[in-house]
Amino acid sequence: MNSSTVTLTSHDGQAFGAYLSLPPTGTGPGLVLIQEIWGVNAHIRAVADQYAMDGYVVMAPDVFWRQGAGVDLKYDAADTQEAYRLMRNLDGPNAAADLVTTAQALRQRPERTGKVGALGFCMGGRLAFQLAASGAIDAAVCYYGGGIQNQLDLAPSIQVPLLFHYGERDAHIPPPAVDAVRAAFASHANAQVHVYADADHGFNCWGRPAYHQRAAALARGRTLAWLSEQLD
Questions:
Q1: Which residues are marked as active site?
Q2: Which among 58, 71, 81, 145 is placed 20 to 30 Å from 87, CA to CA?
Q3: What SS3 state is found at 60?
Q4: 94-124, pLDDT tens digit by residue?
Q5: Total count of domains within the chain
Q6: Which CATH number fits the domain that encloses residue 226?
Q7: Global pTM?
Q8: Three-state SS at 19
Q9: What is the rounded distance in angstroms from the CA atom of residue 102 to the CA atom of residue 68?
Q10: Order of strands, edge to edge, in the sheet holding 112-121?
Q11: Distance between CA 172 and CA 84 in Å, rounded?
């Protein structure tokens, strides 16, 4: 893979890192990849490389850098406890601003052609939703974004296409929460909500017990087809 860590400058003049993965052709549409609570770890870097192999210029910013740069956690009990601590202490407004900075930086990359989208998982799914509301991207994909149902006041301000993936067995995001999201975007020009049978929260992550191969493959296929239309 043609990948590297690049340095971006935040809105308040500080430096933070992002994992950049380039497609084999060297150019393509842009994709901001937003981490789960375990940081830009081996799994997220691999997902970035996956989408780069599909032709996207992928940038995965270090969301937790203001608490400590380079968070790269495993899925064991100790690291998961640390991951939840980092999530609880996340500075929401600054994190949102850092994602806008990332999208802007991606638009300025010489390798980026076409539009710029966002793809986020869990906490990152919620942040992708917020990034869509900012107007800084052209489309967003939200995998089991926890808390989106509590931020539906943003829905009227979102004009870009949205794709939502949820697991049927996700106790963190129960059916009424998914129904609330679906209802909020019922009249949206281009929003899709998919629920995957027998899948739990985190079903896309092959490093976790919740991994569900069939749901992950189906969601990825839908995501690629959808991105090919929205970021053309």
A1: 122, 170, 201
A2: 58
A3: strand
A4: 999 999 999 999 999 999 999 999 999 999 9
A5: 1
A6: 3.40.50.1820
A7: 0.97
A8: strand
A9: 18
A10: 2-9, 15-22, 57-61, 28-34, 112-121, 139-143, 162-167, 191-196
A11: 14
